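Handout, section B. The chain below has 174 residues.
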Amino acid sequence: MNTQFFRKSPTHVIVTMGLLLAIEVILSRFLSIQTPFLKVSFSFVPLSMAAMLFGPLPAAGMGGIADFLGAILFPVGPYFPGYTLTSLLTGLVYGLFLYKRKVTWWRVLGAVTIIALALHLCLNTLWLYMMSDKAYLALLVPRIVKEAAMIPIQTVVIYIMGARVFSAQKKIAA
């Protein structure tokens, strides 16, 4: 059988993206540690994998859809579109750094750091501030500690997973 056909088949892409989306929602909504102002989860794994496999735009779409579906189907508070924007941008950043490129420590660290600093610390803290009327700096301090702890974990997990995805893609293409 021609594996090239299955790899580029729109059906394959849709099914794979659907599975990754479902995994992302489950990891984000059910297998995460959440407080009113902090959330620790491994939902970055399926999103970064979608970015590696399909690129920035599909990963951005998946991030936005996953956040929206998770918020509507399994709410933990009121829906706020800012978080959906952050999830969309997260998929976009992963895709820009990791799609069709050999996964290196620097690429992964760059993507994770930009996402942690610009999106999670700045944007998500802004969304929390807008929704809760708590002081921005009071929200920011514990989130800095959380992001500082998660950057190395995310970098290692994405690097290991990305190296495996890249070698599997090379085997399929051969």
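Note. Confidence is low (pLDDT under 50) at residues 1-6. Compare this with the example in section A.
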